[in-house]
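hey so u asked for the seq, here:
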Amino acid sequence: GIGNLPLFISGIVLYVLAFVAFTIGWIGALINLARLREWTWFVLTILFSVVCLIVYLFAGPEASPTLKNPQMYEMPPEH
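ran it, structure tokens below
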């Protein structure tokens, strides 16, 4: 409640900061999953955002070697 105003305001500030950090992590995970073309993970992360984001952080798909260093697999220019 608003009985203790400084505590109430600090709680709101912490809630907003946590929400911003979660949203940035969630969007970053969605971008990475789309880049990896992991569509099952992508859809599940949209539907069950909190649970899937936690699972993704610990056991999510990893990038293949071609996506980690794409310059290594490019065709050399023709002369």
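The mean pLDDT is 83. The longest helix spans residues 5-36.
lmk if thats what u needed
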